[in-house]
Design a protein that fits this description.
Layout: H1 3-6, E1 12-17, H2 25-38, E2 43-48, H3 50-57, H4 64-78, E3 85-89, H5 95-104, H6 109-113, H7 116-124, H8 133-136, H9 138-147, E4 153-156, H10 161-177, E5 190-193, H11 221-229, H12 250-258, H13 261-272, H14 278-301, H15 305-333, H16 338-342
Parallel strand pairs: 1-2, 2-3, 4-5
Helix pairs in contact: 4-14, 4-15, 5-9, 5-15, 9-10, 11-14, 12-14
Length: 344
């Protein structure tokens, strides 16, 4: 089947997340909220990258399956709609592995060694042995994830553009070697830059599971308020009577994202004049957070694990059909198909 026959009238988007646990506000603001908006504009494929989780967690994969269910529940709770997007599990679509194997045959080793996160993750995850074939080669699998759907765009933040550029290079090299009737099979995906606002964790650093400073999408209100009570603030406010600056405070960053203009005005006036204390300011921030979290949590409560698994399996079947269409072309281009040999 030709690519033109496969294309819908909408551009195709592909993205995914590793199942490392329940998703947090950073995941939502940095990716999920943007994905939800894309559903009506693009043909969307969103997946859970369980094979990618093995690149760092291969020694103990026991949590990958339960985490996969939690991530799918968070996907659905955030507003991803299986009627609008294909929601699937990477390992249920074996064509990802087949294309990764074939792409790996022509991908230079030096390309993989220069990926920014290769040395960075080895330095940060010193408690794990990452000198493995799987960890070195994960960018090829990532390229396969994208190229198997012949995606037009990959939505990423600015810090992830290098990964998409490598995928473009992998596709370009494949297309140099292999074509079908003179036609390139793997289109080079473009970066779709998405808003990625500064969202601090409770310790003031970037919100991340590895730092243990997250606010989960599924955290009930008392837990959210308790976490915010411990959040670091402007270091200039040592005493209640000391004035502060919301522009230098992690709690102020939360207000900018989640509070109303009226609340922001009270925060700026009260903090700079020491008219309010940090506890009151944090309580207002929690009010704003809960306005975002409550509808997400309400949707989550209405979805069972069984329903989430059914949606994953159904989406994976749909993804496999589309992935196989690409693989038919890839095998043909590489002259790996028996029909090519027989001239059928």
């Amino acid at each position: 089947m030709s690519e033109s026959a496969n294309r819908s009238h909408r551009a195709r988007v592909l993205s995914g997340m590793r199942p490392t646990g329940k998703l947090h506000l950073g995941n939502y603001m940095g990716a999920l909220a943007n994905w939800v908006k894309m559903q009506d504009q693009y043909e969307c494929y969103f997946f859970i990258a369980d094979w990618h989780a093995l690149t760092t967690d291969y020694a103990d994969p026991s949590q990958i399956a339960p985490n996969t269910i939690e991530v799918m529940l968070d996907y659905l709770a955030a507003g991803l709609d299986p009627a609008k997007s294909v929601l699937f599990l990477q390992s249920r679509v074996l064509q990802h592995a087949e294309l990764a194997l074939l792409l790996g045959m022509s991908t230079p080793l030096g390309w993989l060694e220069r990926v920014p996160s290769y040395k960075e993750m080895q330095e940060n995850l010193t408690n794990r042995d990452l000198t493995t074939y799987g960890f070195l080669g994960y960018p090829v699998l990532m390229a396969s994830d994208i190229l198997i759907y012949q995606a037009d765009f990959v939505p990423v933040g600015q810090d992830q553009q290098a990964h998409v550029e490598l995928t473009r290079e992998v596709a370009r090299r494949f297309n140099q070697f292999y074509k079908v009737d003179g036609r390139e099979v793997l289109p080079e995906p473009k970066v779709l830059l998405t808003p990625s606002p500064k969202l601090p964790g409770t310790d003031g650093r970037k919100m991340s599971k590895s730092y243990g400073n997250t606010i989960l999408l599924s955290d009930p209100e008392p837990v959210v308020r308790q976490k915010l009570k411990t959040m670091v603030t402007d270091p200039a406010r040592i005493r209640r009577s000391d004035p502060g600056d919301p522009d230098k405070c992690p709690v102020g960053d939360l207000h900018k994202l989640f509070s109303t203009p009226e609340t922001m005005a009270k925060v700026y006036e009260g903090c700079r004049s020491a008219g309010i204390g940090c506890i009151e300011c944090k309580s207002w921030a929690a009010d704003g957070l809960m306005k975002v979290l409550e509808p997400i949590q309400a949707r989550r409560s209405g979805i069972s694990e069984g329903q989430a698994i059914e949606i994953v399996e159904d989406g994976s079947r749909k993804a496999a059909v589309r992935a196989e269409q690409t693989m038919v072309e890839v095998r043909d281009a590489m002259q790996m198909a028996l029909t090519t040999v027989r001239g059928a």
